[in-house]
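Work Package 3 (structural annotation) set out to generate three-dimensional models for the target panel prioritized at the project kickoff. During this period the team completed the workflow that converts sequence records into discrete structure tokens, so that structures can be stored uniformly alongside our sequence database. As a representative example, we reproduce one entry of 107 residues exactly as it appears in the project archive.
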Amino acid sequence: MSWLLLIAAGLVEVAWSQSIKPTAGFTRPLPTLICFALAAVAVYLLSLAMNGLPVGTAYAAFTGIGAIGAITLGIVIHKDPVTVGRVAALALIVGGVALARSTEPGG
């Protein structure tokens, strides 16, 4: 259950990362409210996941999921460039999250 909460937290973090730009520097009230709400939900879900996971593993996976999602959405939606370096970075992040999961005590 902790891993499911962590995955949910990571997915909300991806949504949060995409909600920052529409705030226009936190000058637009509704997008800013949505941005803050998404951040709060992400951290809340992360805190629940940490009840059953080591803090380091949980946070590394949380930020990894967020980074993977943000980079992927940047490429797909915002037409960010696909470079060898970006693909290598994604592979390293995925590998790191998988390694953290597979070497978790009791995991």
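Residues 2-102 form one domain.
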